């Protein structure tokens, strides 16, 4: 038995409960079939990076997991509970799923501190003192505690995206979804956001990340999902994907991305 086999056996001996499960998920936008029979299981604590060309269905996949996009058929479960279609049950489940988008969606008229405090007070019914203490702790964790009393417009894009991450973490989510979290940022601001995400990964947060940042994907992912034309084409480790992709589609994608 090879060393790789031994380490693989050891890793598989630790069975972690499934956090995200997608079974036979289909999604159309009109005549366009954007998700084709998606089956995906993400264990608790795993960091999954979703890669692929534009229009491959990556962002739609991410958005179906908390039903920002409804699916046509199939099932999606989070921590063993199937996603409700609507109503209070859906709101409760969404509270367990943190989401960070390309755009920061911060409330412009509230301070950074107030932005992070709002949802825990409204949704989790935390008292103001507890919400403030937690918000300050999280702002410190993402490296911007000194900006707490400023408004979003006074911060750089990278700082605003770190506030958005702190805001999502304030709900104590079971899983974090990131949809191209650095694509709207100036290049020099990208790493400060990726560093925060690497920290979360090391702490064991279950994460599904749609990204174009190949170096980050290779460094921080436990697993790579490569999508094209609404289908999961490859599902492998970062080393396998980047050094020996199996499909012609992935080889073509990587040659274009890494050839520059």
Automatic annotation (TrEMBL):
Membrane topology note: Peripheral membrane protein
EC number(s) on file: 7.4.2.1
GO cellular component, one term: plasma membrane
Coiled-coil ranges from the UniProt annotation: none
Presence of keyword Nucleotide-binding: yes
Annotated Pfam families: ABC_tran
Keyword Kinase: no
Location(s), subcellular: Cell membrane
Recorded superkingdom: Bacteria
Reactions performed catalytically: a polar amino acid(out) + ATP + H2O = a polar amino acid(in) + ADP + phosphate + H(+)
Keywords: Amino-acid transport, ATP-binding, Cell membrane, Membrane, Nucleotide-binding, Transport
Family matches, as InterPro entries: AAA+_ATPase, ABC_ATPase_HisP-typ, ABC_transporter-like_ATP-bd, ABC_transporter-like_CS, MetN_ABC_transporter-like, P-loop_NTPase
Residue stretches making up the ABC transporter domain: 20-254
GO molecular function: ATP binding; ATP hydrolysis activity; ATPase-coupled polar amino acid-transporter activity
Family: Belongs to the ABC transporter superfamily.
Protein name, per record: ABC-type polar-amino-acid transporter
